[in-house]
Amino acid sequence: MRFLTLFILVFALVMPATVQAADLPGIWQRSNGHVRIAFAPCPGGVCGKIAWLNPGMKSKARVGDRIFYDLVRDGAKGWKGKAYSPKEGKTYSATLTLEGAMLYSKECLFGDRICRSETWTRVN
Known about the structure:
By secondary structure, the chain is of the alpha+beta class. It has one helix spanning 2-21, and strands spanning 26-30, 35-42, 45-53, 66-73, 78-85, 90-99, 102-109, 114-122.
């Protein structure tokens, strides 16, 4: 009986974290429809790799390029980590926020002095 009680207690404590961690993984499409990123667990947290590019788009980016990495939980609906831009060849600090069916990313250089934001929608 003690074992069962302990198991239920541990499960109750671990389950909410597992559910929260599962809300980012999947495939997300950029608002312009040209890029899809597949987010999945990886060493160091969560990573996002290019899963699809619009065939008519000219870009230095390639399918399989790691764009987001070292993403770790930051609050109930957020992650912080790094974002790489193949276009500029630069790495930015990144924050991602999940609000309903929308994912918002913000990539910044020099703290929060130079930033850009993007909206993503889940496609799977």
